[in-house]
Design a protein that fits this description.
Elements (H helix, E strand, L loop, with lengths): L1 H44 L28 H8 L6 H10 L12 H10 L11 H17 L3 H14 L7 H17 L4 H33 L19 H10 L12 H24 L1 H5 L7 H6 L6 H12 L4 H18 L3 H10 L11 H16 L6 H5 L3 H11 L4 H23 L8
Helix pairs in contact: 1-14, 1-15, 1-19, 3-4, 5-6, 6-8, 7-8, 10-16, 18-19
Keywords: Endoplasmic reticulum, Glycosyltransferase, GPI-anchor biosynthesis, Membrane, Transferase, Transmembrane, Transmembrane helix
Protein name: GPI mannosyltransferase 2
Pathway: Glycolipid biosynthesis; glycosylphosphatidylinositol-anchor biosynthesis
Length: 449
Amino acid sequence: MAKSGVIEAMMRTASVMNSHQTLVLKSAIISRLIVLALIVLWRSLFSPYDTSATLNPSCLIDSPSEPQRLPLLPGLASAVESCIVWDSVYFVRIAQCGYEYEQSYAFLPLLPLCISLLSRTASIFYSSIYSESLYALFSVGGVYHLVSGANSIAVFWFALSGCARSNGVLNAGYFCFQTLHQAYDAVFQKKNACSAMQVLVTGALRCICIFIPFISFQAYGYFNICRGRSLDEMRPWCKASVPLLYSYIQSHYWGVGFLKYFQLKQLPNFLLASPILTLALCSIVSYVKLRPKIVFSLGFRASDEEKESMALFYSSNSMQSSQVASLSSNSPSKKREYHNLRQRKQVIEETDPVTRSVEQRALGKPSFLSVSILPFILHLAFMAATAFFMMHVQVATRFLSASPPLYWFASYITKIAGSGKRWGYVISVYCTAYILLGSLLFSNFYPFT
């Protein structure tokens, strides 16, 4: 009887989820069409600030054996190619000619590889030539598989995100968090040192797999630029004890470094980044206020009930056994209640993770308040601090755009009675203004990123 009720509830939840997924898909398609239409409109009304992007000299090393490929629609291809601006110039050049210059090694190879492969079909590939969307695809996809419990698939997706952008290696932090907690559980709950060692080795291998693409690309740059040269001919970074090309390029060519961007003339760029940084800071501070003990203990002081909501990062066997032991002395009615609860939990776990999230909200547990959000908040805090103190701060918007807690928090505050409607209006206005100004300034090579 109870099980049939749970099944009916899950069917209703699945129906709601299908409608939500349809709405999200439609919204994504419509928003993309609107942005593309705005780009075409602004490009037709205004002249680009910098027209040098259209200058495309021949590759330094030509391949005479490979004939030049022409697109099926050269007029359309030429029109779209003229819209390549900012970092897109580097990505397209790498796809065409490979890594010719030292500074081009700042751009990881996944997007140029995709462009090169797609160009071998009849498709026109000169659109959205930025790696953020590709990184977001694999990063969010990795998070999806992580919360689904498919750790091996999540590792693969996170590794691919590291092929698109260097910050993909930070996704290894999720497995570091998981490994530490599972090892702690194995030592102090199970009293099993062998199990703890197995957890540590598995976690280390997963992190190494996520780092491999980035490390391999750095090795590729080292062998191309440094190997076979005399000491006098070597670039300065080649002589370092740890020859890391990426950090040298960021510092030497773009002036990236701790507090290097803290200059009065960069104040407009700080103002440009202030909305996304404010949203990130508010989400972090709000979560800390709601869960101070959990945050400052990094989750190690979580109760058994709180650990149950973080089953992905804790070992579930010991929790189940401890719960059964605690109920062994209770009345038969308590045991039946626990049995029904376990049946319901089993049905929930057999559904997809998005459905589980909806079910949790139906049980009165707002997703942003969940203890399971902790590793994502820590990840966001590290990235926000890096963007503010280390990077060109104006890139913070696209740098943080693939961080799920930003969207969870924005959704959370809009549902707060009273002030929620006002904050929802502010967020909507900002997003609309960002789309309108971004499509105007960015597509015409004006300062905006």
